[in-house]
């Protein structure tokens, strides 16, 4: 579904992604792992064209996204939840969800607000609350739900377990499993190996903008030296 091919991305002169390649196949949940500064967020931004790769291709559904404006990347069916949740704090939960609404897309789940409330019961309870009166975890859930209102084929979640209470982290893991069961393809970035293993089918580890590992969690467990070298445990 998504194929990142030898991508090089920079911030000014700083060379961040160094020929990064990987694939995400339809229906799988992939975890992009790596330490602080490894390049996880830059990878997601390079898919969204918020950072424009200087070399390489980002193939999605057979078309190269490199050079497309970010709103077109979103319209082509990639939902993106950045590290810093961006809800509209003065709008209610319902209004935030309506803002995200896009037409149904062939091959992607077509979400209704009622279905999203089944997946995110906290949001249902708080549907008339304004965003600013919600906890960090609830804001994170709302950002994901609003992104799903766009009916994406592929969902990119940048560190969904970061900075939220442990009980919400567990809910978040259940949520991601539900989304996969509904047929969504998901890529998460994570530093939390435990969370990644609980939700993802496969791990991709990067360091210094280069891929260091790509395989199952069983394969990763069989190579503890890789975990020790590239992940903080
Ligand atoms: N806007 C920016 N301008 C310049 N350098 C940046 C910018 N954003 C990130 N970097 C640098 O790019 C490198 C990769 O950062 P990135 O945010 O992609 O890492 P990350 O793996 O997402 O880390 P974290 O786990 O802390 O979120 C780091 O060295 C970082 O300092
Ligand atoms: Mg990051």
From TrEMBL:
The UniProt record lists the keyword ATP-binding: yes
Coiled coil: none
The name this protein goes by in its record: Amino acid/amide ABC transporter ATP-binding protein 2 (HAAT family)
GO process terms (BP): L-amino acid transport
One Pfam short name: ABC_tran
A single GO molecular function term of this UniProt record: ATP hydrolysis activity
Organism: Allosediminivita pacifica
Family: Belongs to the ABC transporter superfamily.
Keywords per UniProt: Amino-acid transport, ATP-binding, Nucleotide-binding, Transport
CDD domains reported for this sequence: ABC_TM1139_LivF_branched (cd03224)
ABC transporter domain boundaries: 2-233
Top-level lineage group: Bacteria
């Amino acid at each position: 579904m998504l194929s990142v091919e030898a991508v090089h991305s920079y911030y000014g002169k700083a060379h961040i992604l160094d020929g990064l390649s990987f694939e995400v196949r339809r229906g799988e949940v992939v975890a992009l792992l790596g330490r602080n500064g490894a390049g996880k967020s830059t990878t997601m931004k390079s898919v969204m064209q918020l950072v424009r790769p200087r070399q390489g291709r980002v193939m999605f559904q057979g078309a190269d996204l490199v050079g497309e404006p970010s709103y077109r990347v979103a319209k082509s069916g990639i939902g993106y939840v950045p590290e810093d949740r961006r809800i509209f704090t003065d709008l209610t939960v319902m209004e935030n969800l309506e803002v995200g609404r896009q037409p149904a897309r062939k091959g992607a789940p077509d979400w209704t607000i009622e279905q999203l409330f089944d997946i995110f019961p906290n949001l249902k309870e708080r549907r008339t609350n304004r965003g600013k009166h919600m906890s960090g975890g609830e804001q994170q859930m709302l950002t994901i739900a609003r992104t799903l209102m766009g009916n994406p084929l592929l969902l990119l979640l940048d560190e969904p377990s970061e900075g939220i209470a442990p009980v919400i982290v567990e809910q978040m893991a259940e949520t991601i499993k539900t989304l996969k069961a509904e047929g969504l393809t998901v890529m998460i970035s994570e530093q939390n190996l435990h969370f990644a293993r609980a939700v993802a089918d496969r791990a991709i580890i990067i360091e210094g903008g280069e891929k260091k590992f790509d395989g199952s969690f069983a394969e990763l467990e069989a190579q503890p030296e890789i975990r020790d070298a590239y992940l903080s445990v």
